[in-house]
């Protein structure tokens, strides 16, 4: 028979194993947990997947804000599900699949805009999404096209071309001489070409290191154009008002030309008189300064005048001195 202690140990082992398994599953799928993972799941419709896959990044202004959770076919379009956290998504947000690396890795770029929050139940429509031109697909199509070439027909074309130039040795020789001269010229410029290629490599490295800045510049320009589009009516009204004001001012000047002409002529005569008597006016202001200063000192004590009469009383034995006003 199993003792009670053995039964408790067995139960504790089973419970501990279950808790450990649950913790492991939760750790591997913590982003999907409602209280830990966080974020909001949205959907967007695209004309094609363009190589986008689950676990690809979701970026806003070049910053990762989430990841793609699913890519599935929905009738004649592709439905992309993605989760976003710590980012605002408006009801006019646009989505674009962009190339992340030259190896063909993609990411989903969002351009948030709008006057309300995007409803997670409503996918971003096809009219607000774009897909990039895939260079890898183009090379695959090139390989398919090259594989479909009829080599026998191509060989026959070259034989026909050779027969055509069979009687034109002089012309062919001249063409080859020209190609030889061109190759010698290029060979003589080898150092310059090497320097040019090195500088081009430096420029390409600089551009590659500044790709994020270029992307932010393009995104900021897009936001600026979007804001100008929103303010288009206000800017139109401002321009219309400025045009109307210019017309009113022009009409005012035209209506008062007869009155403004004599007034301006008289004003010119006045300025001429003042200019001719400028020295007299300067002398007058120079002499008037001390006079007004003395008058100001006389009436500066209140509602009366301060007057000092020297020698009025015979007992004044001291010489006349003005009173001390300090």
TrEMBL record:
GO terms for cellular component: extracellular region. Residues 120-300 form the Mammalian cell entry C-terminal domain. InterPro entries: Mce, Mce/MlaD, Mce_C, MlaD_Phospholipid_Transporter. It comes from the Bacteria. Residues 39-112 form the Mce/MlaD domain. NCBIfam families: Mtu_fam_mce. This is ABC transporter substrate-binding protein. It comes from Saccharomonospora piscinae.
